[in-house]
Fold each of these.
Amino acid sequence: MNPTSAYQALTEILTCAEVALGKGDTEAAAVAMQSGAELCARLESADLIVTPSEMAALKDRFDRCGVELERLTRELQSDSARGENLRRGVASYEAQR
């Protein structure tokens, strides 16, 4: 694998992860991110590097994945808090019956 095809492969993997996170599909995102990590390890062991401009583009894609992950985390925490409030409300209602 040459550095250009490595860059393209990483870009595709990160795009898949970003799209999956945007849809809330954490399983698909985890698979994509694991695939990206494995590719990075193979590139490192082969001493292949990407250009600084490609690295900047990859960092931007990583950052966008991070933003999507943070958004999804906030949504999950909000859902969890709503569930906890509902549980407390039901328990309070049943206690008053």
Amino acid sequence: MGLLLLVVGIFSGLFVFIATMYSVAQAMLNEDKIRWVHLALILATCTVMAFLYERMVPPARISAVPMFAVAFVAMWMEERWFKVFPIMQQLFAAIVIAGLVNF
């Protein structure tokens, strides 16, 4: 069970990293409202990750709620298969909100 949790944690971190790098690219390349949505998503993701890095799970769970909402807006604004990146961030926020993060 411990190895499974380790593998799931590694892949979860990898997917969140890829999705955050996509948001950085969108924030740099776009000029419309979606730019500001991705900037807010980057800020929310970094906030949640900083709380988790410091092993402060309750504040991370609280700050994951706006991250989930902003990721939903980003998913709604994206086109075609690019919706998968905000969905990855939504899943990460849902995992944190559900309290499935433990140390």
Amino acid sequence: MSLPTQAELFTEIRNFRALKWKRGYCQEHELYKRAGCVNVEDLARAPEPTDADIGFPIETLTVEWGSGCLMVELAALAKMPAAQRNKIYKLGGL
């Protein structure tokens, strides 16, 4: 099993953020469709978000090693306790 590339990880993060933005847009503009006996967001009617809408691109610290990788947003890294940050830095060889 091969590890995902950094580009694939960024694509996955962007798609997740776009989906979250579309759901919020549908709720804000009351765009719903009937699915069985419940209303769900009609994501097809929501426009595609711009990179600015979803806060992309993101600045990250990426650490890769033989059996895995770790990608952390710099904003989230700054909020972490020092002990956790030091473990991440150690993994990256800093």
Amino acid sequence: MLDQHERLALGQLFQILEGEPFEPKPLLDEQAIYRGPDGQIIVPVVIKGSQPSLSLALLMAHKAEQLYKQTGCRFMVTQRLEHDTDKKQFVWAHDTWETIH
């Protein structure tokens, strides 16, 4: 699914996420990474709590944009709530949460 260049860039994204001071740390769902219809690589993270984290969403959107400028790989980090049995993925879209399928 991902070529070698994309896998290396994804590794950089993982390192960035690990280095951020969020507690508890969001967990990367490596098995659920996929390419969206517009070509971006969707990277789901699992978070604790009852709602998505706006601060995490804004930070990761900024970091993903920086990584895009460095590598040419476009990533979208989505959030999934730990106890959501529907496994909905959320992304912040300017002023509201959108669900990604």
